[in-house]
User: What shape does this take?
Amino acid sequence: MQTMAMNTIEKAIYNRTELLLGEDVMEALAGTRVIIFGVGGVGSWCAEGLVRSGITKLTIVDSDRICITNVNRQLMATTKTVGQVKVDALKAHLLEINPKVEITAIQQIYCEETAGQFNLDEYDYVIDAVDSLKDKVHLILTATASKAKFFCSLGAALKVDPLKIKVAEFWNVRGCPLGAALRKKMKRAKTMPAKKFLCVYDDEVLPNRGHCQSCGTEKCMCPKAQDGPGNPDLLNHEWCSSKAQINGTTVHVTAIFGMTLSGLIIEDIYRRTLKAEVTADSSEGNSVGAERASDGLACESEEARATADVSEGSSAGAERASDGLACGSEEARATADVSEGNSAGSEGSSEISRVRDPWKTPEAG
Ligand SMILES: [Zn+2]
Assistant: This one.
């Protein structure tokens, strides 16, 4: 009886998502296993996006405890949770969204020494929201060699313009210092990722204009490490920040990074689930609708744009434009909307082809 009541509640929680995505996609979401490395300003919002969309098997990995300087951008960081283990505080929050989700909270650092503790083949998706360069390289190499699909967050600090956030394949990212540093480190070590993967990034780089208050100074209000909760082996590890360089952040940017990562997973599952139906039902032109699902998620497409299939783009655009005409029937407006829709559609479809097509060979960057 208890179970039945909970199933009813769960069904209601996800009703608006199911209304859009359909029952088959919701079932696929519920059966999907995701692991997120790093639940800071980006990873915590990714977890939020996933759980609110119907992902029910989620593993979150982070070694840190909540510092008061995290409150500006990390979902579970509030003045009430300072000092708590990040993954525990986030788990408690996610269970409030849906008490039935299976959240595995692991307070651990991801690095060369601990990597063996995680079997990435057990997951359908791996999310990298780690900010240490060395550990990130290791995770990228390990995750791309696994069976899981891999999405990566690049640097989200020093930015204020939400419209500069983009998605591109790792080797095509431009204007992101972290992306450049990762490529350089891999080329130098001659260790390349085993497969191509999409990154969320942003090419805006602003200077810090203020002063940094780091943990351990009398200005930081965090409780002392010795009194902290969680894994005793990690009490003195990065209590809040012992990083070489601390950069300023805004939550609207870090949260969009995280939500975009969650969106890449949701949309991938949606598209895969629909693809089977489209194949079985191709005469109705559903393929256009299925492709359209990727619009806007995969940005950055210089070459792909040039080789875009214009006729496919036009029909997708025309269909999309008609979506916006629900309350307008004047011929003039329809014409204007359709022509606008055309250009948007052709861009969208070229971006999709970028995602779908065999990835280009790595180039110097
Ligand atoms: Zn602190």
User: Anything to note?
Assistant: The first strand starts at residue 33 and ends at 37. The two ends are 59 Å apart (CA to CA).
